Amino acid sequence: MLGVGVLLLALYYAFPLLILPLVGATLLGWTFKAARVPSLSFWQSWKAFLATVAYGFLGMILLNCILPWKGPASGRLVVLLLAAWAIQVIALPLLLRKFTARALVAQEVTILVTNLLSVAVLVWLVQ
Q1: Centroid of chain to Cα 56
Q2: Residue 1 belongs to some domain of the structure
Q3: CA 118/CA 120 separation, integer angstroms
Q4: Residue 2 lies inside a defined structural domain of this protein
Q5: How many folded domains does the chain comprise?
Q6: Taken in order 15, 13, 57, 44, is the CA torsion positive or negative?
Q7: What is the pTM for the complete model shown?
Q8: Over its length of 127 residues, how does the chain's per-residue pLDDT go in tens digits?
């Protein structure tokens, strides 16, 4: 039983702070290459993606504290996830300073895939 608790605790901290930015930076490099956009270094992509994940989680925390919630069926999780997604969609292009159409599509595809991955991990942890 202790092993499962330690694994869940490690995933709780390691996933948003280490795994998600690593996957996001890797996918960002791949999507930039596929879109023929001049790529940044892996570490620049990783730092930008880590910042967007942190901004997204900070937005979720603030929104959770500010808005009143009316029970478990109020759609709280959907609103929080959409807020995190919106923050990431705005923050990543601003941090990377790549505003061409191909670069924006590559960045948004990366955000979409990583957010779908994080929702899948969340669903797996809740089961």
Answers
A1: 7
A2: no
A3: 5
A4: no
A5: 1
A6: negative
A7: 0.82
A8: 557 777 777 767 777 778 888 999 999 999 999 999 887 889 999 999 999 999 998 998 898 888 777 766 667 778 888 999 999 999 999 999 888 899 999 999 999 999 898 888 878 877 7
Assigned domain for 8 exists: no
Helix, strand, coil distribution of the chain in percent, nearest 5: 85, 0, 15
Q: Of the candidates 37, 57, 53, which has an alpha carbon nearest to the alpha carbon of residue 98?
A: 37
Q: Is 26 helix (H, G, I), strand (E, B) or coil?
A: helix
23, burial (CB in 10 Å: exposed 0-12, middle 13-18, buried 19+) = middle
User: How many angstroms separate the CA atoms of 100 and 94, rounded?
Assistant: 12
Nearest by Cα to 39 from 92, 98, 91: 98
Residue 75 belongs to a domain: yes
Residue 18, Cα to own-chain centre: how many angstroms? Answer: 11
Query: Taking the chain, what is the end-to-end CA distance rounded to the nearest angstrom?
Result: 16
